[in-house]
Amino acid sequence: MKQYKDLAEFALEKSLQKPCEYAEVRIEENKSDTLSFLNGKMHIGNLPIDLTTDAFSRKIGINVRILANGGIGMATTNQLSKESVMKAIDFAYKMANKSGDQRKNPIKLSNEKTYEVSWQSKYKINPIQVPLEEKVEFIQQFLDLFNEDYPIEYLHIFVLLTEERNTYFINSDGSAISSHVPRVAFMPVIIGIQSGGKNEQLMNTYATTSGWDELMSWSILNEVRESIHTLANIITKAKRPPEGEIDLILGPRVSGIISHENCGHPHEADRIRGREGAQAGESYLRQHEVGFQIGNECVNVYDDPTEPGSYGFYLYDDEGVKARRRELIKNGKFNEMLHNRETAGFYGTKSNGAARAVSYDREPLIRMANTYFAPGDFSFEEMIEDIKLGVYMKSFTEWNIDDKRLQSKYVGQEAYLIENGEIKDLILKPALEISSIGLFSSVDAQGDQKSMQWEGAFCGKSEPGQGCPVWTGGPNIRLRNIKLARGQ
């Protein structure tokens, strides 16, 4: 990236020769390798249609954004010459002016501190530099698990994604920020099928920015082995879930997806303002002010990009704002939105560093990073000890939520009956159908720090789409007096 810094500074200088209020330049280099095994057969690339697409992707380009006439214009190019950069600047400036002419209210960016800093995630082995042979050897141990005899048949896909992102960002305020973040994600997808067509499937994502050696230190093989047997038990042994009102304990994988979908997305300020309405949806919080009581006082949901090793890790966002933990729900109340500089300027506050882009040719948008229920004080044993009739939903197989992020449904996969404080039989597809407010108002306990778990994911938003790397997670949580439905 060093050889392109002069070009970035040239681009900023030329942008500021336009009659504009603000300008920023981001040069970004992305490397990614995708290795996939479909039922034991190796494919270099993505699945399932074009098996060689983006197998080994290397791209670099420049992004220019200009605020002029109350509008923002953006242009990108992967032709890193002064001539191409000048064309991008002219296009961005014209776009800003046309956008400003059509706006009722001019865009005003929040005033933010400036930084001159270089940062990166902490790691020992960069995943993108691991030889192909070593990656294949890693996946082969998972393929060997299917050499055993099982009471059902299995289809399986294993995907290994290694990436590296390098950026150099400068703006007219005076910031100059360099970053370097490698990532690795391993995604096993397993489908269990019984004769007659009855089936169950699971997909997990093990992901980190702490390097290849960090991924290797996890007990992924044992977890996948256990999942294979669990799928068979669900298909062959699971019983009908109980009916009527029960107490419900949700494991970290379920509480994690809930924190993301029912809390993170509706707290995005651009969604609250309606910008994402035709693409990613709206927010039920549009009708409420900060301070609105969403749930019980014990409920705290945070989003923290500074979590070390997390898949959504960053220390400065793609607008040059320093990252921090965002306390979205605090003591049950709507505490803060996820902001970029535009929405922060609209609401008269500061950005909390939520602007993210996945490539040089994408606009920085308000995005989550690592969203989770904060841990409480309860051990798992304490959470179940006084439950007479309940369900422990350890993982999920399906989820649905409406465009306003209000009405939602989560269908359990590995789920167990609880009777008189004891875990009993597997039950089949218990379904939680509940509003976001109803859900957060039903939570009366959050598990302790020991129960905290994380899982990687890709958060989709915008058009063209941006699949942003994130973690979801948290502790076990307990909901009281819940009426279950049954998943299909």
Task: Give a quick rundown of the structure.
This protein is α+β, with helices and mostly antiparallel strands and 488 residues long. It is 21% helix and 37% strand. The chain has two domains: 120-167 and 181-237, no CATH class; 245-486, no CATH class.
Folded structure, characterized:
By secondary structure, this protein is α+β, with helices and mostly antiparallel strands. It has 2 domains: 120-167 and 181-237, no CATH class; 245-486, no CATH class. It is built from 10 helices and 27 strands. The chain has helices at residues 5-15, 82-101, 132-143, 212-216, 220-237, 252-264, 269-273, 341-347, 380-384, 436-442; strands at 22-38, 41-44, 56-68, 71-77, 116-120, 153-171, 176-193, 199-203, 206-208, 245-250, 301-303, 326-330, 333-334, 355-356, 365-366, 370-373, 389-393, 396-401, 407-412, 415-419, 422-426, 430-435, 443-446, 453-461, 466-474, 477-483, 485-486. Strands 1, 2, 3, 4, 5, 6, 7, 8 and 9 form a 9-stranded mixed sheet that branches. Helix 1 (5-15) packs parallel to helix 2 (82-101). It is globular, with a radius of gyration of 24 Å. The model is unreliable at 47-53 (pLDDT under 50).
